[in-house]
């Protein structure tokens, strides 16, 4: 069953990426990923992950991508775990769209404590990517220990909401 799901998802993602590339004149897609953490009072904390999908190398068996991370704000990337060679300032003109993606993400979180919600922004339009509850199957260690602890402190698991 897992293989079928992964295979189906892989084909779907390939199709969506191909279709979106056609929408975006063949340019590399930029993923706008919001790690959303619902707080006990119903508010949200988040980490916004901006990835330009440009593979810059390999570490072990994992691809290394250029990215910037923004914690609880969209203006300044965190210094804890961002690639210095990726200038996120080029995306500052998209702040209204990023704020709209953040608002959409909050609306999708009504029944969830945590999720990563992905978006694309192509030709001035926002496209939904996916919701995932277990990014990288929980095996992503690229953020570093300090940011991992900070993100862990944001997660308030509420078993009664499930």
Describe this structure in words.
This is TupA-like ATPgrasp. It comes from Entomospira culicis. InterPro entries: ATPgrasp_TupA (IPR029465). It holds the Pfam family ATPgrasp_TupA. This protein is an alpha+beta fold and 162 residues long. The chain has a single domain, classed as D-amino Acid Aminotransferase, Chain A, domain 1 (2-Layer Sandwich), CATH 3.30.470. The N terminus is likely disordered. 18% of the residues are buried. The chain is globular and about 45 Å long. It contains three helices and five strands. Strands 3-2-1-4-5 form a five-stranded antiparallel β-sheet, sandwiched between helices.
What key attributes describe this structure?
single chain; 162 residues; alpha+beta; D-amino Acid Aminotransferase, Chain A, domain 1; disordered N terminus
| CATH fold name | D-amino Acid Aminotransferase, Chain A, domain 1
Number of helices: 3
CATH architecture: 2-Layer Sandwich
How helix-rich are the residues, as a percent range?
25-40%
Main sheet attributes: strand count, strand direction, barrel closure: 5 strands, antiparallel
Total strand segments: 5
Radius of gyration: 16 Å
How would you concisely characterize the structure shown here?
This protein is of the alpha+beta class and 162 residues long. The chain has helices at residues 2-23, 95-108, 145-154, and strands at residues 31-38, 44-59, 62-71, 114-122, 125-132. It starts with a helix and ends in an 8-residue tail after the last helix.
């Amino acid at each position: 069953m897992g293989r079928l799901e992964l295979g189906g998802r892989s084909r779907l993602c390939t199709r969506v990426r191909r279709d979106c590339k056609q929408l975006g004149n063949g340019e590399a897609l930029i993923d706008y990923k919001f790690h959303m953490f619902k707080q006990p009072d119903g508010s949200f904390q988040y980490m916004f992950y901006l990835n330009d999908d440009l593979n810059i190398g390999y570490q072990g068996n994992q691809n290394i991508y250029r990215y910037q991370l923004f914690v609880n704000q969209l203006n300044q990337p965190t210094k804890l775990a961002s690639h210095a060679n990726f200038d996120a300032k080029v995306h500052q003109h998209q702040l209204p769209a990023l704020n709209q993606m953040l608002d959409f993400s909050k609306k999708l979180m009504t029944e969830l404590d945590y999720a990563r919600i992905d978006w694309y922004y192509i030709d001035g339009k926002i496209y939904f990517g996916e919701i995932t509850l277990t990014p990288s199957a929980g095996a992503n260690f690229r953020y570093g220990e300090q940011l991992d602890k900070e993100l862990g402190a944001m997660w308030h698991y509420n078993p009664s909401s499930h």
